[in-house]
Amino acid sequence: MRLAELTALFGQLDFPRSDGHARPPRDHVRAVEGAVRAGLSDDELPLELLALEIERRDGAPELAPFYVVPEVGVRVAFAYWRPGRAAGAHEHSDWTVTAVLHNALDVATFDWDATARARRLVPKRLFSAEAGRVGHIYGPCIHDPRNPTARWSISLHLFGPSDGPVLEAQVGPVEGLAPAAPRPAAAHGRRPRARPRCSPKAPVPAHRRRYDRRAALRDARGGTSGPESTLPRPAELSSDPGAHRRGRGLLAHERECVRRAQVDALAHRGPRAAALLARLHARGDAGTRARAARALGRPEELDPRAALVRRWPGVDLDVVWSADRAELLARCGERAQLLVRVPAWAEPALRALAAASELRPRDIPGLAEAEQLALARALVDWGTFQPFAAQEN
Ligand SMILES: [Fe+2]
Questions:
Q1: Which pLDDT score, from 0 to 100, does residue 196 have?
Q2: Residue 321: beta bridge partners?
Q3: pTM above 0.90, yes or no
Q4: Are 138 and 49 contained in the same domain?
Q5: What is the Å distance from ligand 1's center to 198 Cα?
Q6: Ranges of Low complexity compositional bias (predicted)?
Q7: Dihedral class, residue 209 (left if φ above 0, else alpha if ψ from -120 to 50, else beta)
Q8: Residue 90 Cα to ligand 1 middle (Å)
Q9: Residue 372 belongs to a domain with what CATH number?
Q10: How much distance in Å is there from the Cα of 199 to the middle of ligand 1?
């Protein structure tokens, strides 16, 4: 499944437009849930969504949409959960579809009516959700997702356009209910509304995204290290005189943690994940680069004598001619992907690669050593070959 198919589903089901307050029938939300479940059952949709997230948000740790479905205003976002992180019990008043993309979450739910009557949280259920688990909320609902594991988790969220807290406005303060996160200031002097704790920020306009990307690059250069599970949130330092500087350092660290979680989510998704892993490798700090390099199955420095072995047994390499150039294609069933196009004189190198189940860069025929290493590095980046040592681990 592709994102375009998922987007088209909202039109086919005649979801309400974002400028109204109508809510779709619950069966239509269930249909979206089923489509997301089907989409997450293979790699195509996760890779497409992660590609958008990485390109548009570049490791930004806060919950904000990387995509908004045109016309219906459904916001699509990833949430990142450090080990032990809990969202805090919060409300959803519209519909949402939520999936665990990577690792696992525990989700506590609370009885809405009993909570409203008692004005304190009344527990209802606690369930565990592994990667691939998809569910929906048809509000109102109170829940508290948390990551009970020692690794980072990633969840995928589709939010209806009218989500927001309503309970305390109806019954007064509720003991245990997390305060809603403030919305960014609204345009035209309108009063900002609160938003629920796992409802995303408004989309960032293009001119702001460019600014944020520059800030991201600046922050990434100043990355810090430390135990992920004990990091205070930047907001917790806000009363400290050095808070701004340290807050930026923590944000940079969070950004690297997000990138590393993305690396982990991509690590077992086959050769088509290699380009995204290479992008994270290029953007990340040393720790992220090392993690991405491991996921790509490559050492940081490639030795001309290092043994490389083929990955992905179901993928065949083939050499074809296009105009006066030789092309190396990766074929899997009916699908073919162009890996590299070279001048005619380098065709023997491609033939050797296509035939090899194991090779050493220095043995690639007809190339200088620098060309041998560049080609071997590209093969490892694409996930076509991996160092023999990495295969053993
Ligand atoms: Fe939530």
A1: 53
A2: 326
A3: no
A4: yes
A5: 4
A6: 178-187
A7: alpha
A8: 6
A9: 3.90.930.40
A10: 6
